[in-house]
Amino acid sequence: MSVLIDGKGFAATLRARVAGHVSGLGVVPGLAVVLVGDDPASAVYVRNKGIQTREAGMNSFEHRLPADTSESALLGLIHRLNADPAVHGILVQLPLPAHLNADLVINAIDPAKDVDGFHILNVGRLGTGQKAMVPCTPLGCLMLLRDRLGSLAGLDAVVIGRSNIVGKPMAQLLLAESCTVTIAHSRTRNLPDVCRRADILVAAVGRPEMVKADWIKPGATVIDVGINRITRDGKSRLVGDVDFAGAAQIAGAITPVPGGVGPMTIACLLANTLTACCRAHHLPEPEGLTA
Ligand code: GUN
Predict the structure, then answer these.
(1) Disulfide-capable partner of 61 in 32, 203, 230, 246 (CB 3.0 to 4.6 Å)?
(2) What does pLDDT average to over the chain?
(3) Hey, which residues does 232 pair with through a beta bridge?
(4) 116 in catalytic set
(5) Which CATH number goes with the domain that contains 82?
(6) pLDDT attached to residue 1
(7) Are 170 and 151 in contact (CB under 8 A)?
């Protein structure tokens, strides 16, 4: 049976560390979250972000806009937040309604306030080894991997999924740790064979329990980014992209769903907001909060 990687506990410790730094900072970091429309899942995320931001001693500025908000109105809000010295981090909750161009909106955010790390400048900086804002979910995965394995240098890492939010930045982070990185996706041939090479397997595809036990190299570290709601035996439950019960017999260590990667995302958002605030005020950055 594998070691269970306690993302929930790790995230609580990280949030407490962030709160400790905030209390001695002399300036209150501020995070602005923009939600357009009324997607119920997004509303839950945004509410949780607000609660955890305030618990860390930071200011939370929430902007809820109607689903039919025009692009120019949204860009106007972003420009005001860019210019507001009380706002150190800006997050536009995705997905946006279809009539809004997400790339245009994200690239209107001041890169120094882009706590999601989605601005093209931060994507480029991450890919070229320069100081960047790093996307929260992959950053959380990296922290769990470093905590579990120490140095990742020379390990074979397979990332399943090529999204801009998780798969691609995760691969960049692992490459920067000197892993040998493979990005697999829906068109990859012989996916089980590719996965069996992995010392580190990161599953970020959004397909419930797709990764089976016999895809996993014995002793591998498995990071399950998936959060999928399924109904089984008439009951609704959350499962990851990995068949946890089977994989836990083979892997050396594995993240559960829920309680693995999920809680790390908001904890890393708070860490990024603190980092952005320190950079804006030319204060020393606390150790271990970024990649
Ligand atoms: N929607 C799903 N995940 C994310 C995320 O990490 N950031 C933003 N802004 N929206 C999301």
Answers:
(1) 32
(2) 98
(3) 235
(4) yes
(5) 3.40.50.10860
(6) 83
(7) no
Looking at residue 79, what is its pLDDT?
Answer: 98
Q: Answer yes or no: 49 catalytic.
A: yes
For ligand 1, atom 3: residue with the closest CA: 94
What would the two tokens of residue 61 be? 């500025």
Q: Whose CA is nearest to atom 2 of ligand 1?
A: 94
**pLDDT tens across 42-83, in order?**
999 999 999 999 999 999 999 999 999 999 999 999 999 999
In a domain, 116, yes or no: no
Query: Which atom of ligand 1 lies at the shortest distance from residue 92's CA?
Result: 9
Burial status of residue 8 (CB atoms within 10 A of its CB: 0-12, 13-18, 19 or more): middle
Q: What is the CATH number of the domain that holds 146?
A: 3.40.50.720
- Ligand 1 neighbour 94 (Cβ under 6 A): yes
Residue 97 buriedness (CB in 10 A; 0-12 / 13-18 / 19+):
middle
Q: Give yes or no: residues 232 and 175 share one domain.
A: yes
Q: Which of 106, 109, 116 to mutate to test the pocket of ligand 1 (most atoms within 8 A of CB)?
A: 116
- pLDDT surpasses 90 at 168: yes
Q: Could you tell me if residue 285 is inside a domain? A: no
Give yes or no for residue 146 having a pLDDT over 90: yes
- What mean pLDDT comes out for the span 142-168? 98
Identify the helix (H) or strand (E) that includes residue 51.
helix 40-55
Mean pLDDT of 253-281: 98
Is the pTM higher than 0.70?
yes
Which structural domain, as residue segments, surrounds residue 213? 136-262
Let me know whether 236 and 176 are in one domain: yes
**Same domain, yes or no, for 53 and 169?**
no
Q: Are 156 and 200 in contact (CB under 8 A)?
A: yes
C-beta 134 within 6 A of ligand 1: no
Tell whether 11 is covered by a domain: no
The one catalytic residue in 110, 114, 116, 224 is 116
pLDDT of residue 265 exceeding 90: yes
